[in-house]
Amino acid sequence: MASQHQSRRSVRGGPPAAPSRQWSTVGQPTGKANYRPMTGMSRRPSRQQLQKPARQDSIPEAERNESTPDQNEQPVQPLPNSKKRYSYGQPSDPRVAAEMAVLTEYVKEKSLMSTMMTCCQAVLQRESLPYNPYPVFVSWMRREAERFHMFAKSTKSIQATLTSKQQSTTTPHIYGVKGHSNAWGLEAVINAVDPQALKRYDWLVEDETPTKLVLSDEQQEYSGQILVAMVGPAAFTGTMYRKAPSIDIRVEYVIYGPDLPTALLIFNSCISEDIRRHISADCPHRILGIVVPRSQPNENELWTVEQAREKWDDFWDTVRDSVLQKRPIVLQCMFLLDEETAEYRIGNKQFILHFVETSENSQQERFRSFAELPYLTLYEGIFLRKAHAETYVMTLKRLQETTNQSGANANGHRESMEDSLASLHEAERDDGSDLVNADEVREPIRAKWQRQIAKCHPVRDALILAHLTFLLALSDRSVQGSEVRIELYRFLHSTAASWYAATVLNSALQVLVTTIDQENEDDGKFLTQQFLEYKTKLLTAINPELHARSSEMYILHRNLGNVLQNMLIPDPSDASKVVLKALDLNTLQQIQNACLSLQLLLTEDAMFFFKRLNFKPQVKSTKSSNSLTAQTSSPAKMNHGVEVKEITQQKNIVIDVEEVKSFSNWPRIMVTEAVLMQYMVDIKLDQVWHEYLLELLTGDHLPPNPYPRLVTVLRQAAHRMQLCAETNASLSTKLLRPDQTKLVDRINSIHGVTSVGAYGLSPRTLAGLDAEPSGFIKIAKLMEGLTNKEVVARRGQFQIEVSLAVGRGCAFYGRLVPYLITLHLYEHYYIRGNIGADSDAIQLYAKLLYDNISSLSAQNHHILLGVFFGGGSRYMSEADLVDDKATFFSHVVDAARKKEDIHLKIYQPIGWRYLRIHKHFVLHYLFVDNTEDRHECYSPDDPSSVCQSVFLSQAQASAHARGGGAKQLGNLESATNLRGVNEYLSKEIEGALDGHQVMPAYQHILCKALVNKDKKLIADAWRALHSLAYQLDYIQAINQDLQDLVRYALLFPGKLIKASASSQSLAKGRGNKAKGEAGPSSQGPFNDAALAKFASVYSEKLTSVLQEPCAFVPSSLLQVIQDKLQTIVDVDNQTNRQSLPIEQETISTLKEIWQLIHPVQDWTSFDVHKALSHHGNGFISPQE
Predict the structure, then answer these.
(1) What are the C-alpha distances in Å from 76 to residues 65, 80, 662, 952, 955?
(2) Closest of 6, 4, 42 to residue 25, by C-alpha
(3) Tens digits of per-residue pLDDT, 490-545?
(4) Are strands 343-359 and 362-369 parallel, antiparallel or unpaired?
(5) Which helix (H) or strand (E) holds 248?
(6) Are the C-beta atoms of residues 75 and 66 closer than 8 Å to each other?
(7) 1099: which residues sit within 8 A by CB, 6+ positions away?
(8) Which of 245, 247, 213 is nearest to 227 (CA)?
(9) What is the pTM of this model?
(10) I want to staple 926 with a disulfide (CB 3.0 to 4.6 A). Which of 240, 399, 832, 952 is the partner?
(11) How many Å apart are CA 1179 and CA 713, to the nearest integer?
(12) Per-residue DSSP letters for 867-926?
């Protein structure tokens, strides 16, 4: 579609073109007579283009199919007569006319047409048009979908919500709301609260308010006051927040007495009593932990109640130090919000001390406050009691006066708080300015909030940023401040805010899992109750039945629903109830990371509507010392399978409008419109739009928000644009080579592709084999060192044959399957003996397996992770085999009796990667029963295996034909046998799709298509396996490989060889040998340099895939992943040597990356599957 500048004097040149209307074959003309100048444009980029991205301002020419017009050529053909303009006729059927009228009015009301036209105009105004514009359309419409929620209320309505009628009090600076008595504070703060909504917190605040100081008999001369305020998001419930994500209560103790150390002891006793109350059986609330600041700034330590009990003295020493540093102690709690509904909400309870030193011998009072800043509570929240608010202000006011009179202390200086209060009082006395609103009070508070803002991630912490910004904007009375508050209101009522509020309970569940006894009946019930609350909130937030949702939210809702539901089981004592299975931390973290991926996507969509605000991420320097690319020389580009560059490089293809116009035969006055209109026709937007309107019209109802469905349609159209360039017939013709298959053994019906030494029993599947050097030949080389050549032909009464085959579609690597994720090898053992001797045969089979695995271990060419029995339910490592041979024999016999899978998991170094290989062992026992040959297979039944198995020699294929059951089946091409294979594959496909394993389903579809010679299915399978979804499967598999290898290195540190610097230099000097079949290092198969290289290439490929436009990955998610990737490869600044940290933290980081990508993998697979389904059902190109 795009072009590369080559010689315009090329004999068969032609102008660059837009995508074909039929999403046609590469180089296929559109066939539009009135668009003749565009007919020669190829959709396949040239080699030069694939080597480097095309420039956005100019696209070079492509190789052309017709010559460039010049003076020596024949005159241009005249333009054909214009076709009659389409016109819309009113339907004659009244019912149809009524439905069309409703749809037309709906489209107009929702501004669907005008919005889509605006989006198209924005694309068409570019100098260079994207090959695939649908990702741009998706981003635009996703914002429109969010606009529906954020702009549901008008600006006037929001202003009214954020304005209340106030009443003043006798105390300066304290205001309330007329008609209400449960909200008191500064005028600017009270203006933005809803007293009616705050009533639901009345009982909680009352219950959490201490009644008195905890004093011993020796401390009776001390007295004090206890002031309770509500700060944080909960203070603005009903205005800025529908439901606050947390409840923050601040308890401020004002203690009067002669001695500060004693006051600190009293303060500690009050906190201790509060903790004891929360852990008692009578308290309805639950304490999760105690956050105590450390000596270092911005560092906190979480103490559990048990830890505090065990280290009681250390705990209180830490508390005392924190108080003296003016940093509050915080209890993390689960607050019971409503006794009737038993609704809990996560929250914090903060403790702050103010001390007034009094003396009987002196009338002066010395004030010592351990709050971080004066009046901070007034600026951050409200008091629910008028008396508390007035006491708070008047106490500080009176203490300021006495502080000012007291002068300097004995050491000649004051504490910072006292200095501040004294200077404020002097300022007020001198110029009469407002003390509480003075700059000396406000600016330190604003500076504190700004420091907190600077520490936040601009997208991941956007909800925290929004709250802090709102606090800053409250005191701004200007028009700009009002606009900022309105923007924040809309943002805090977005889908992103609702999703964030639903996910915060996960962190509380993680703490509960680690602190409570799940076996305890009461604790178990409480945990189940909170889990059900979490499940309800999470699924309700993105429920597609409540609000229209696009495919990414629909898929995450479905998958999370399945995961959460599977964690519940029926209550044995009451069938109508459910109880929670043992909840583990890993599952909760996986759910939280999946939620984070969607959170970042939703947040970026909502932040688009910021006009006054700009939360920009910090731009990291490319020369950062932590950057791999900055510290290592640019490595040669690594090959990843057999990728089709016409697909993987599409993002670099653009169309230069001016260049296309220069080759056009349209009249100059209309050439621009003609070129742009043909572009819109070629991308088939009219067909996509028709599909969307048809879905709206045929649905159960017209959704209030039509844009999420449009987003889904456009996402799927983007994948069709990327994958469906060729027709099914054209594509299948290229993919299948039936002429390469020959019958080499008529007796055993063995067919072969002799050019590459591939043999099998099914000529249909062999037609899909890639005979090129980059295809099956690579598989054959990998198999050479894994063949068991040490088995003798006879052991006692048994005759033995062994053959090794490639299975599960791995033989199709190359032209049909671009990536080799796992190489599945099947080693078949054919043991012939007497009837009834199968038990002895199984024992012999176990010994043969043990000898083979021991031999592979001795060769030291592979990394042996271990043997898995019964689908992975049982496992033995390489060391276990040596130490416990009897257990291995027992497992093999048991698995064979149950016909379960047995496989050896291996990693083989090949180029830059460690390839995962599963070597499956299959036992076939042959015997004669009443002169009839019988066959028994001791492995899982798979009728399709005979079609998928490919052997490296004719002898091995013949042995399988004789001993693998094919002889008993008869003609494999018979209708009966094909029906059995199809039924099995259909069942596997259905099971994979039901389990949301879309790409594995398409691997089965590929096999089924080959067996049935179904051109459409072959084309669809090829498209799916070359899609972005399969690329994500590939990089996710590499992630798991890295986890396995690091875990193996931790378990067996002696296996990992430290590569010397000289060997690394030699490896670098070999250049691109990493692309080929590099064998194991002379130092051993497992060394740290190769492992680090594996991680580095994985990091590069992952970043590249996530940057694909059709991945629809938010930039903030990519940044989060890149930050994590930086931690898994260390680079020595002096030697430039890379290394992968062999530690548990590396595994955890890799796991987090996998969990963040997993939802993207799921919804991309769903979109690809739906895109291909539409392509084959009602969305077939006209050429077909």
Answers:
(1) 16, 12, 14, 58, 64
(2) 42
(3) 999 999 999 999 999 999 999 999 888 888 888 889 999 999 999 999 999 999 99
(4) antiparallel
(5) strand 247-257
(6) no
(7) 628, 1125, 1128, 1129
(8) 213
(9) 0.88
(10) 832
(11) 12
(12) EEETTTTEEE-HHHHHH-HHHHHHHHHHHHHTT--EEEEEEEEETTEEEEEEEEEEEEEE
Q: Which residues contact 1 (CB under 8 A, 6 or more apart)?
A: 16, 17, 18, 19, 41, 42, 43, 45, 131, 653, 655
Alpha-helix runs per DSSP H in 407-520: 416-431, 439-455, 462-474, 479-491, 495-503, 505-515
Quick one: which of 668, 669, 665 has its CA closest to 75? 665
C-alpha to C-alpha distances, 44 to 12, 18, 100, 726, nearest whole angstrom: 16, 11, 41, 11
Q: Of the candidates 869, 888, 870, which has an alpha carbon nearest to the alpha carbon of residue 879?
A: 888
- Label residues 372-388 b or e (16+ Cβ within 10 Å = b): ebbbbbbbbbbbbbbeb
CA distance 760 to 742: 10
Maximum Cα–Cα distance across the chain: 119
* Token pair in block for residue 749: 């019906």
Q: Would you tell me the crossing angle of helices 521-541 and 551-565 to the nearest 10 degrees?
A: 170
Q: With pLDDT > 70 as the criterion, what percentage of the chain qualifies?
A: 84
- What is the number of other CB atoms lying within 10 angstroms of the CB of residue 741? 21
β 654-656/128-130 pair status? antiparallel
Residue 423 pLDDT grade (very low, low, confident, very high; cuts 50, 70, 90): low
pLDDT digits 0-9 by tens, 302-351? 898 888 888 888 898 889 888 888 889 999 999 999 888 889 999 999 99
Cα–Cα dist 235/427, whole Å:
31
Token pair of 1155, please?
């969990």
Helix (H) or strand (E) holding 1106: helix 1088-1106
What backbone torsions phi and psi does residue 987 show, to the nearest 5 degrees? -65, -40
Side-chain half-sphere CA neighbours of 923 within 13 A = 29
Question: What is the bridge-based pairing of β-strands 822-832 and 913-929?
Answer: parallel
Question: Domain map of the chain by residue range?
Answer: 1-73+93-151+661-725, 166-406+414-455, 495-607, 750-970, 1030-1176
| DSSP sequence for 997-1011 | -HHHHHHHHHHHHHH
Per the DSSP assignment, residues forming a β-bridge with 359 are 362
Confidence check: pLDDT of 75 > 70: no
In Å, what is the CA distance from 1067 to each residue of 641, 912, 913, 1062? Answer: 21, 10, 14, 9
Radius of gyration for the chain, computed over Cα atoms and rounded to the nearest angstrom:
36
Give the position of tokens 């579809």. 1005
Task: Answer for the pair 548, 708: CB distance below 8 angstroms, yes or no.
Answer: yes
Label residue 361 by pLDDT band (50, 70, 90): low
DSSP 8-class letter at 544: T
Dihedral through CA 975, CA 977, CA 980, CA 985, nearest 10?
A: -100
Q: What percent of the chain has pLDDT over 90?
A: 63
User: Which residue reads 């990843």 in tokens?
Assistant: 640
Give the least confident one: 285-299, 615-629, 834-848, 1163-1177. Answer: 615-629
Residue 453, pLDDT > 90, answer: yes
Helices (H), 608-651: 628-631, 645-648
For residue 769, give both structure tokens: 């084999």
The pLDDT tens digits for 949-1004 are: 999 999 999 999 999 887 777 788 888 899 999 999 999 999 999 999 999 999 99
Residues, the chain, total?
A: 1184
Residue 352's closest CA among 331, 332, 333, 335? 331
CA 11, 12, 17: angle at the middle one, nearest 5? 140
Cβ–Cβ under 8 Å, residues 722 and 712 = no
Burial of 745 (0-12, 13-18, 19+ CB in 10 A): middle
Q: How many CB atoms neighbour CB 65 within 10 A?
A: 15
- Which pair of tokens denotes residue 450? 């700004």
Q: Which residues, in sequence order, are CB contacts of 369 under 8 Å at separation 6+? A: 326, 353, 354, 355, 399, 417
